[in-house]
Write a structure and sequence with these properties.
97 residues; mainly alpha; Lemur tyrosine kinase 2; two-stranded antiparallel sheet; elongated; kinase; transferase; protein kinase activity
Length: 97
């Protein structure tokens, strides 16, 4: 966002120092393409981080939900520890973290 503001500041310069409209357009196009590329890279990194690791499956895992095992090894593992468990008992609903 700092770069976008810099382009805006170029437009506020005195007329003799101000860039041509074509140059401003080129700068804005470059910034837009750069931000799209960055967001695509971020998406790919997040997508790959969430994909299960099929190469190193632990077949001896006796977890209640083995499909969730791969989440324990990444940044989502911290969030998984704070899952709210709701159990229905004879006295009503029981809530546990």
């Amino acid at each position: 966002s700092d770069r976008w503001y810099e382009v805006l500041q170029f437009c506020w310069l005195s007329p003799d120092k101000r860039p041509a409209a074509e140059d401003v357009h080129r700068l804005l196009t470059y910034l837009r393409m750069q931000s799209q590329r960055d967001s695509e890279v971020d998406f790919e990194q997040q997508w790959n981080a969430l994909k299960p690791n099929t190469n190193s499956r632990d077949t001896s895992s006796n977890a209640a939900f083995p499909i969730l095992d791969h989440f324990a090894r990444d940044r989502l593992g911290r969030e998984m520890e704070e899952v709210l468990t709701v159990t229905e008992t004879s006295q009503g609903l029981s809530f546990e973290y």
